[in-house]
Amino acid sequence: MSACEVIGSLPCGTLPHATLMLGTLSHPVCVAHVQAVPGQVARLPIVMVHGGFHTGQAYLATPDGRDGWAQLFARRGHDVYVPDWPCHGRSPGLENIAALGTQDIAAALATVVTAVGPALVVAHSAGGPIAWWLAEQLPDMVQAVIGVAPGAPANLVPALPEDAEHVAALAFDQAAGCPVFSQLDQAAVASPAFVRKFWANAPRFPAHTFDKYAMTLVPESPIVLNERFNIGGKGLALHDPARVAARPILVITGEHDARHPRQVDQALATYLNADFIWLPDLDIRENGHMLMIEDNSQEIAQVLFDWLHRQGF
Q1: What is the CATH topology of the domain spanning 6-308?
Q2: How confident is the model at residue 150, as a pLDDT?
Q3: What order do you get walking across the sheet with 16-23 strand by strand?
Q4: Which of 123, 157, 179, 246 is the S-S candidate for 127 at Cβ 3.0 to 4.6 Å?
């Protein structure tokens, strides 16, 4: 693997991590590598893909100071690789973010999976379409996918017109995915009201850390956002869904997630022949969109560990 590894400290916990530079020539990505704890059973590496407006920080530590999923998985014996999307967080290119497309991100993250794989992929929210694409394009490298409230491939998302008024009328329509139309001439910024409505709305969200959490959010590409909602029919679609479905897949969702009602994510799971976990069915309640940082994130990580164990990973 080509990279300049600079040993540093995670914001929480005691596990060291290295910083790797991978990605494509036009879209480099900074990757945090949290090494597996010595003495554990050696397991497949994991690539953790964040969602829109976020960075890999969502996996590295919770805003209330607990270990993130990256550390929890490393303690299970996985080397964990947490990239920041191109133009996000520590990855260079913020000045070009308005021109960033989902395909650009997917191609850049494919270099991470290729460098460290075969691997497991954990993908959240707008990282979902990227994970499905990676599984289709790199079938031997992506051994399994865990979709955490994941976006669907564009195959399942009705195309919307490139009309701001039309899309605005659907902004709170859960069946339509609560779409948002983004103007293409500038980066999008998530307002505090938007964040509280869609990401920090659940009882399990550590509300006292809202300001600290909000500081981790970054501007987002309007192209990526429009593609996420398949505006203009330009979302990232699959050519062969059966190719993706030919591996273990889990879709997991909480009950207070406006864009991921049970029927929507269950339909995605059915489409990809995936296992589906609706957390209330396990008597795990009051979770929203940010499962990896909510106050029971360790309990949810254990659900993921149990599923991986059942799959032989």
Answers
A1: Rossmann fold (3.40.50)
A2: 98
A3: 6-9, 16-23, 28-34, 80-83, 46-49, 119-124, 142-148, 249-253, 275-278
A4: 123
What does the DSSP assignment read for the chain? -----EEEE-SSSS-EEEEEEEE-SSSEEEEEEEPPPTTSPP---EEEE--TT--THHHHB-TTS-B-HHHHHHHTT--EEEEPPTTSTTSS-GGGGGG--HHHHHHHHHHHHHHH-SEEEEEETTHHHHHHHHHHH-TTTEEEEEEESPPPPGGGS--B-S-HHHHHTTTT-GGGT------TTS-B---HHHHHHHTS-STTS-GGGHHHHHTT---B-HHHHHHHTTBTT-S---S-HHHHHSS-EEEEE-SS-TT--HHHHHHHHHHTT-EEEEGGGGT--S--S-TTTSTTHHHHHHHHHHHHHHHT-
Mean model confidence pLDDT for the chain = 92
Nearest-angstrom CA–CA distance, 37 and 16: 10
Task: Sketch the domain layout of the chain as residue ranges.
Answer: 6-308
Amino acid in the structure at residue 265: D
* Residue 170 in this model has a pLDDT that exceeds 90: no
Per-residue confidence (pLDDT) for residue 75, from 0 to 100: 95
Do residues 214 and 182 touch, judged by C-beta distance below 8 A? no
Return d(Cα 152, Cα 170) in angstroms, integer. 18
Residue 5 scores a pLDDT above 50: no
pLDDT for the residue numbered 15: 64
pLDDT, average across residues 22-27: 95
